[in-house]
Amino acid sequence: MTDDAVHRTAAHVAHDGGAGAEPGGADELDAAPHTAPHAAPHAAPLDVAVDRQIEAILMIADEPQSLVSLAAAVGAPVPVVRQAVERLVADFDGLVGTVRRGFELREVGGGWRFYVRADLDAVVEQFVEAERPARLSQAALETLAVVAYKQPITRSQIASIRAVNVDGVVRTLVARGLIEESFTDAETGAINYVTSDLLLQQLGINSLDELPLISPLLEDGAGGFEQNEGIPDGRT
């Protein structure tokens, strides 16, 4: 082959990007299809585990949970927990390709807690009205008495007095409109409950001052509700 033929062959190979072309060269890169921008990355497997753990804790928690308490519960740093909560909020709100749930994860009183979405309050109220019993149970009556004489009071304080778990009973009383949330403790995040105006109407009294003294009903007239200083009959 002459020198001219060699030069013409080399030029033809270089122009056509033949087998001798270097892989990944400019011609090959130009010919590669352009890909769409990557979607937002999903949580890594470890993060998913943290998300599910926090979700489970919040599902059964009766009080708002702070990031610090959640971090202690799952054994993760607070920044990791904060990111997990943000992912859960976006997930439940349907912002990451998911279905918008009938509940939301809301920050209140320095902590996080599940709440029914406002636009579904009517259907939930209708369900509660249909499901709740006509009469209060003995446990509900006892819990209601504790709240009436010791308010404002938290669930843990009620449970301490009654020596039983009162979560379900408190939810029932709130659903019946006999007690209501008054305020959230800034330090502990615990919700304080008080009796409602509906209770006064049901009892046929104008104020809590008309409640009967509790002292005569106690065995020794000195225990139980009389632990409050300056309130000899335990009434607030």
From TrEMBL:
The keyword rRNA-binding does not apply. The keyword 4Fe-4S does not apply. Residues 1-40 are annotated as: Disordered. One of its GO terms (biological process) is chromosome separation. InterPro entries: ScpB_csome_segregation, WH-like_DNA-bd_sf, WH_DNA-bd_sf. It comes from the Bacteria. SUPFAM superfamilies: Winged helix' DNA-binding domain. Keywords: Cell cycle, Cell division, Chromosome partition, Cytoplasm. PANTHER family: SEGREGATION AND CONDENSATION PROTEIN B. This is SMC-Scp complex subunit ScpB. The lineage of its organism: Bacteria, Bacillati, Actinomycetota, Actinomycetes, Micrococcales. The gene is scpB.
